[in-house]
Design a protein that fits this description.
Elements (H helix, E strand, L loop, with lengths): L1 H72 L18 H56 L4 H23 L7 E2 L2 E2 H10 L7 E5 L1 H4 L2 E2 L1 H20 L5 E8 L2 E7 L7 H12 L16 H12 L2 E7 L5 E8 L3 E2 L15 H4 L13 E2 L18 E2 L11 H11 L19
Parallel strand pairs: 1-10, 3-5, 3-11
Antiparallel strand pairs: 2-4, 4-9, 5-6, 6-8, 7-8
Helix pairs in contact: 1-2, 2-3, 4-6, 4-10, 6-8, 7-8
Length: 430
């Protein structure tokens, strides 16, 4: 009996041990499987970490520099690459990297905008007072001219002040301000002569005067901007050609065209396309994108066109082999001739008195000036240059700024003048 009980106990113990061993074997097998799985996952994580590290290096070495070249340096043809590892496409990792690029681009644009706005506001503020002082200085000179018989040196100084005022005016316009001078209605002929007088080498500009076009009246709010834009085109033509520059005004179905023909080498197709692109951008200057050296002449013309409603084009070759620049003044900017003032016994106002209402101001409510400034000086008629007459029957040019510029031409010797400063735009570059 005892022997049987011992045998049963041993069998039970062995059965229990067998069950335990079986369970332990299964547990060990499971643990080994889990360990192998963990090793595989660790390898995958290492691979993912290496892939992400490589992709982060790609972001820092390739993608961010390309973004800087595109947004800051503005190299042409630069494309910001995507992820280097295609396996990461569509993952959260790609989304996060793209967000980094977006934030960097946003920071660059916001910084550029803040810097540009601050700089342009500073330019507007710093140039307002000098422009007013230059206008006042010209008034003082013209007062002295009315009292003096020898005006040659005064005319030289007056012309230098005109050139200085033009540069200040350019800065104000490019910074988003208005030209700073408000005038009454005036004729296209007066506008052409005013623009001619704002160039340094004005003696090389020939204006083909026709009474039917030269006597077309332009609304006062556009007179000064149109003269500024035309002066820029004349300056370009003078700087990139050596011969005479011819200005004509032609009546067309859409309005009046002021054409500037130079005798330079012209523009190649890429230069014409670049000029057309500049003229399409009619907003205030972004100083953070200015090329070196600066080329701002056409940028200024484009902004005036967008602000005041006339159009500019420099893509047509001139009949002389150079460039034909055209300003189109639509009929909406043309008005009737002002009513003649009532006759009185009062003497004719002096040149200084006529300019008493011309002012350089910082707001749109500028004082009104009688057309464009008129210089009336005593001089021998034989030495007074006149605009080229298109026909023998064409009447003489009215006594306007044209005679003032002619007087300057009489007083200043072209041989004594320095070469003109090149304009900011190079539409003639080959």
């Amino acid at each position: 009996m005892s022997y049987s009980l011992i045998t049963v106990a041993v069998v039970l113990v062995l059965a229990v041990l067998l069950v335990l061993l079986t369970r332990m074997a299964r547990t060990v097998a499971l643990l080994r499987h889990q360990l192998r799985t963990a090793h595989r996952q660790a390898d995958l994580l290492k691979q993912d970490a290496a892939r992400m590290q490589k992709e982060t290096e790609h972001l820092a070495v390739e993608r961010l520099p390309a973004l800087v070249d595109t947004l800051v340096v503005r190299y042409p043809g630069v494309v910001v690459p995507g992820l280097a590892d295609e396996a990461l496409h569509g993952t959260a990792f790609e989304e996060h990297h793209n967000r980094v690029l977006e934030l960097c681009a946003e920071a660059v644009e916001r910084t550029r905008r803040d810097i540009g706005d601050t700089a342009l506001a500073t330019v507007r503020d710093l140039t307002s007072l000098p422009q007013s002082h230059l206008v006042l200085a010209q008034q003082k000179i013209l007062e002295q001219m009315d009292r003096s018989a020898d005006t040659q040196q005064l005319m030289e100084l007056d012309h230098l002040l005109t050139l200085a005022q033009r540069q200040v005016q350019r800065l104000r316009i490019l910074s988003g301000a208005w030209p700073g001078i408000q005038r009454d209605t005036c004729t296209l002929g007066e506008i052409v002569e005013s623009a001619r007088g704002r160039t340094e080498d004005y003696a090389r500009v020939t204006y083909v005067y026709l009474s039917n076009t030269g006597q077309a009246w332009v609304v006062g709010s556009v007179a000064e901007p149109l003269a500024v834009a035309l002066a820029e085109l004349l300056d370009n033509a003078l700087s990139y050609s050596q011969g005479m520059v011819t200005v004509t005004v032609e009546a067309v179905q859409a309005g009046y065209c002021i054409q500037v023909d130079d005798r330079g080498v012209g523009m190649n197709p890429s230069a014409r396309a670049a000029a057309a692109h500049v003229l399409k951008r009619q907003e205030a200057l972004d100083i953070t994108t200015i090329a070196q050296p600066p080329r701002l002449g056409l940028t200024l013309v484009a902004r005036l066109c967008g602000e005041y409603g006339f159009q500019a084009d420099v893509q047509t070759p001139s009949a002389y082999g150079g460039v034909r620049a055209v300003l189109l003044v639509p009929h909406e900017l043309i008005t009737d001739a002002p009513a003649a003032p009532a006759k009185t016994d009062a003497p004719e106002p002096t040149r200084a008195a006529s300019l008493a209402h011309t002012s350089a101001v910082t707001g749109p409510a500028g004082a009104s000036a009688p057309a464009l400034p008129k210089r009336r000086r005593r001089a021998p008629a034989s030495t007074m240059p006149r605009p080229v007459e298109a026909a023998a029957s064409t009447p003489a040019v009215p006594e306007t700024l044209g005679r003032g510029i002619a007087a300057i031409g009489r007083a200043l010797s072209p041989q004594s003048r320095t070469s003109p400063e090149g304009p900011s735009d190079d539409p003639h570059a080959s």
